[in-house]
Design goal:
Length: 223
């Protein structure tokens, strides 16, 4: 079945460009468009898309609040949010990730990256490499706790190896890189990542990276 995509951006020309790129793919179908966050919420309810391509700064309701209402705590719908951003708006992306977004993409990304991002997010994975999220979290470290706060009780539910894996996920390593670092198989890493997400009630690797920073497990700028 085709991946159902909702385009959310207050610039019609950009929506048209995204539509042309995505509709050229046999496994992707653009099911609707919205010009602001309020319309996006209504369209998600009506159209039940798999992926919402979400702009950040829009009139009436921005992409952060719309993301929170679509994918935030207590929301069990199928829609996953892929945030669109530009370099000068990066400070909003941390909040979008906290709100439940599965990742973000720069607006000037090549067409093939947009298509791949849609597929990755639809499959339930984080978009794209967590290293991108790590760089953004490092850049906006002042948005995050200092790391001196008390470690959340939920972190103690993880095994020592699961904590190691979480740290490496937060630092941007892929499953293959984590496997090489820990001298285990990639399948074992996938199992550990799955356990981490389940135990901490996290949606995906991006949320795991945010959790690792917010809990103080990984400090911004640490290697």
């Amino acid at each position: 079945m085709a991946i159902r995509v909702l385009l959310v951006d207050d610039q019609p020309l950009l929506r048209t460009g995204f539509r042309m790129i995505l509709e050229a793919e046999q496994d992707i179908a653009v099911v609707g468009e919205a010009g602001d966050g309020l319309q996006a919420i209504d369209q998600v309810r009506a159209l039940q898309p798999d992926v919402v391509l979400m702009d950040i700064r829009m009139p009436r309701m921005d992409g952060v609040e719309a993301t929170r209402q679509i994918t935030g705590p207590g929301k069990d719908g199928p829609a996953k949010v892929l945030v669109l951003t530009t370099f000068d708006l990066d400070e909003y992306v941390v909040e979008a990730l906290r709100a439940g977004a599965s990742g973000f993409l720069l607006k000037d990304a090549p067409a093939n990256e947009l298509v791949q991002a849609i597929r990755v997010v639809a499959a339930g994975e984080a978009m794209l490499a967590p290293s991108i999220t790590r760089r953004l979290l490092d850049k906006y470290a002042d948005h995050l706790p200092s790391g001196e706060e008390q470690v959340p009780d939920t972190l103690h539910t993880l095994t020592e190896r699961e904590v190691e894996v979480l740290k490496l996920v937060a630092r941007g390593l892929s499953n293959a890189e984590i496997a090489a670092d820990l001298f285990v198989s990639e399948t074992t890493v996938k199992t550990h990542v799955g356990h981490v997400l389940t135990k901490l009630s996290l949606r995906d690797r991006v949320q795991a990276a945010v959790y690792a920073y917010e809990s103080g497990l990984v400090r911004p700028g640490a290697q």
